[in-house]
Design brief:
This protein is an alpha+beta fold. It has helices at residues 2-27, 115-123; strands at 43-51, 56-58, 66-70, 75-80, 83-91, 97-105, 125-131, 134-139, 144-150. The longest helix has 26 residues, at 2-27.
Length: 152
């Protein structure tokens, strides 16, 4: 009489094991990473500063001298020619951005440098857009922008 009870209990355990093995993989949820936040994990280099409605623009001689990092902890940092900078930023409604307390360390960079204009543009940033390997920061009231490309 003991034998049928043993078979029934082992059959139940075997059935439960099968269900766990068969159903558990179906319960694993795969979450695709959101590419909207990809700009946080990149280092950007300045391509061009466009003033107003594209009537005037300036490009750095060496793009790698003008870098920008946006951390997901709301820290903005980078290089402006011979000057390093760091500050805070906040993203508000949609793609609006506000740079707070930007501080630069270093000395004057020379007459050909875009460091002053670059830092002024960052402090006046109003919005941003990211499209693939391009970041565009809008700044000022006249529709000026800075275009960046992702650094390798």
């Amino acid at each position: 009489m003991q034998r049928p009870y043993f078979l029934r209990r082992s059959s139940i355990l075997l059935l439960l094991s099968f269900l766990v093995v068969a159903i558990l993989p179906a319960c694993i949820v795969v979450v695709d990473e959101d590419d909207d936040d990809d700009h946080y994990r990149r280092r950007w280099s300045l391509d061009v500063i466009v003033y107003g409605s594209a009537s005037e623009s300036e490009s750095p001689v060496n793009k790698s001298d003008y870098s920008l990092n946006l951390s997901d902890e709301s820290i903005l940092s980078g290089q402006a020619d011979c000057t390093g900078f760091r500050g805070g930023y906040s993203v508000t409604e949609g793609n609006s951005i506000e740079v707070e307390s930007l501080s630069a360390s270093g000395s004057a960079c020379g007459a050909q440098s875009l460091a002053g204009k670059y830092l002024d543009g960052l402090e006046e940033a109003t919005s941003y857009t990211v499209s693939g390997d391009e970041l565009v920061l809008e700044f000022g009231d006249s529709g000026s922008s800075m275009r960046f490309s992702a650094m390798e």
